[in-house]
Amino acid sequence: MQALVIVAHGSHLNPDSSTPTQRHADTIRATGAFDEVKTGFWKEEPSLREVLRTVESEEVYVVPLFISEGYFTEQVIPRELRLDGWDVSQWDSDGLNADTATLVAEDTGQTVHYCGPVGTHESMTDVVVRRAETVTGDPDVGPGFGLAVVGHGTERNENSAKAIEYHAERVRESGRFDEVRALYMDEEPEVDDVTDHFESEDIVVVPLFVADGFHTQEDIPEDMGLTDDYRTGYDVPAEVDGHRIWYAGAVGTEALMADVVLERAADAGADIEDAIASVREETRETPAAGD
After folding, report:
1. What percent of the chain has pLDDT over 70?
2. Rounded to two decimals, what is the model's pTM?
């Protein structure tokens, strides 16, 4: 038997924080690729410390639903899962290419394939683009549009910006959009000045966050000038400084994110090619803007 465990931060304050994680788990569970699909959280139940005890399978693929490598993926999750012999050097990563470390959970004896975070996987670039398609309702969106990939940014974790730059560069190299920029909340260049960084009249803004919360629902819309008060809502697109801003909300809420979770597990050795194809087919249709 083999199991998949998706681990995420969760929140005591935002009841919707865990919703994307649960939805992606449901999508993957429906494929039947794993005997068990479980979720575990740092700030919600089931906790990271107890989640492996809810799993019967002896072989477990653990995929962190986090954007970047850092404190949680390198310290908190391995510690809480009690992964014997864990050392971050086993990933041999420069902050972007963490792959898999196979270890044993000390208290359960299970073999755990501990994967890198979804946010640095190359398939996340597809999710960013799909998010742009979803918010505009246009499966061919790109020509005539600018794309802003937005991250938190922090001096405390230099890897925080790496994932943002990585995906922005991959989209830029594809040539699909007229302009592509990486912008941040707490670093330069800042998302507050989004219209200063684009000549394109239409700009799609995709925050590289796992779930919608305080930053994506309140800070970013107000900082960009979409609204003076997030509680009153805003138009999509919204007119700002002569530009149309198509604000997509958190990338992690996009259904295709389930594909990235599966890709991480496949890279770790799970035989799930049919499930990956199934999930990609299921999430291929682009809904109309506003749906």
Report:
1. 96
2. 0.94
